[in-house]
Amino acid sequence: MNRFIQASTVALAMLTTANAAGPIKVITTTQDLAAIVAEVGGDKVTVESIAKGYQDPHFVEAKASFIIKLHSAELLLVVGRDLEVAWLPPLITQSRNARIQPGGAGYLDASQTVRILDVPAGQLTRAMGDVHPSGNPHYWLDPGNGRQIAKAVQAKLADMSRADAPYFAQRYADFDRRLTEGEKRWKSAMAPYKGLKIVTYHRSWTNFADAFGLDVIGYVEPKPGIPPSPGHTLDLQQEMKLKNVKILLVEPYFDMKTPNAMGRDTGAKVLVMPPSVGGVKEITNYIQLFDYDVDLLASAIKQAGTR
Ligand SMILES: [Zn+2]
User: Fold this and answer.
1) In whole angstroms, how far apart are CA 82 and each of 97, 161, 222?
2) Cα 216 to ligand 1 centre (Å)
3) pTM
4) Which of the four pLDDT bands, split at 50, 70 and 90, describes residue 195?
5) Which one of 77, 217, 265, 287 is most buried, by most CB atoms within 10 A?
């Protein structure tokens, strides 16, 4: 055994001992996951996310300070399905923390137990830069999937700290109850607009549309991750007019030039809607994300006079 490994082993052992007494140190890739960890973990965890909710989660400029934080993390929770593939792997490698490497005891991929949509048929491919080669990674926008993530987090935390298992179970049950109440509220607010045709910039809203009965007929991006092109934009505008699409949803981190021009051409209302906790300062937890978005969208639909 060389001296570096020996030193690391000693450091790791000290870390494990230190952490045994204090809260479990969790790092998540996104604020949505951090919000769910906070719901379940309460004061038995500390949690911090690498990406902020107002950033495009596919393309995060991760600060080097996170390498240090990952080094001492006990649990890393990721969205998976290639969402973080452009920026997370080097951070994990450089953290030199064996626990949080993929497959390690402290690595949890939240996509394992949720409902994934847009799964490509046949061979997986990143052809022409498609950033969704393994199915839609924006699955947290279905509250049912939020429940599944919380359940997986509860099981993991209980595994890591047996003594606190009843505490995590109680917190999960409380979250589940509030989420179920929320689902009733959101579904009834969206019920009058079932089947409403919308267009979105990125393919972020597949699960959201599925949960609340919206029909996404097209995307400003020709493929997920590919910027708009004049030909595609013209075709889409044509289709929007034909199908009387009155709502164009845009995630907060995209350039507004093309969507605004499309709105002027088609008469559709261009609505910037945050797809994540932290997307705007009012959204500080997972339930607020849906309260905010459903309210924003329902008001926009009323204003656009589609029904
Ligand atoms: Zn995406």
Assistant:
1) 21, 29, 19
2) 15
3) 0.92
4) very high
5) 77
